[in-house]
Design a protein that fits this description.
The chain has a domain of 152 residues: Rossmann fold. It is 43% helix and 8% strand. The C terminus is likely disordered.
Length: 244
């Protein structure tokens, strides 16, 4: 039986997160059955504004876990400015309390609020259901360019979290806007080819990736535990509680 996973992300980023989470969990990517929110213009405002219905959809279908991912979208080149962050896009680790402009904080608040409104399935306690938040700094391409620099130092962008994001897609894909085939041709093979040691180095180099990977690690026992109430063709909201 596969693992049903809900993805609420921008564009084709769900393909990247699917591949990354499979590596971090140590499972075959083909085991993941994705449910993703497909809509035009899936940017920050759309993702934030639809957290509640997305949570409801994923939970009612009894997804084993869910991922909410959105780029931080800062664009200052910190190597030039000497600053710690783009002040318009604060980084989650730079403040000790909830920050009104922090995208991670905003997603966390919305996810917690939406979780509290769920009607609990007998087989899946709401409070322990894993919902992972990923806010790549400054974009998910920064993770990939950093990984590329680790895998092949002649390529990629070292210290990508400190660079402006404006040329990241061009650097990775050779074009300013990536199509699905670009992600499948360039991003996914890069992820699949990297070794555990190289992903360990990525954790050291990218704090935002480490934050995501740490969430996967913490939730791994539940994610890889019993497929509590979902089987292909089933609806978690309709399937009766397990016997015993």
């Amino acid at each position: 039986m596969g693992i049903l996973v809900g993805f609420h992300t921008e564009g084709w980023d769900f393909l990247i997160f699917k591949s990354l989470v499979a590596v971090l969990l140590g499972i075959d990517e083909r085991e993941i059955v994705e449910d993703w929110i497909d809509a035009p213009g899936r940017g920050w405002e759309f993702v934030l504004g639809t957290v509640s219905p997305a949570i409801q959809r994923f939970y009612s279908q009894c997804a084993q876990f869910a991922i909410f991912g959105i780029d931080n979208d800062g664009n200052d080149d910190l190597a030039l400015t000497g600053a710690q962050e783009d002040p318009r896009r604060p980084r989650h680790w730079s403040h000790s309390s909830t920050h009104a402009q922090c995208r991670y904080c905003q997603l966390d608040v919305m996810v917690s609020r939406a979780r509290s409104m769920l009607s609990e399935l007998p087989q899946k306690p709401v409070q322990t259901w894993p919902v992972l938040i990923a806010v790549p700094v400054e974009t998910v391409e920064a993770w990939l360019l950093e990984l590329q620099a680790i895998v092949n130092p002649a390529k990629g962008v070292a210290r990508a979290e400190s660079r402006g994001r404006s040329k990241f897609k061009m650097s990775l894909y050779g074009r300013p806007v990536a199509a699905r085939e670009d992600v499948e041709r360039i991003a996914l093979p890069l992820i699949r080819s990297a070794t555990p040691v190289q992903f360990g180095e990525l954790r050291q180099r990218s704090r935002s990736f480490a934050m995501f990977a740490d969430q996967v690690d913490a939730s791994k026992p539940i994610i890889l535990g019993p497929r509590d109430c979902w089987g292909q063709g089933d609806s978690g909201a309709e399937r009766p509680p397990a016997a015993g």
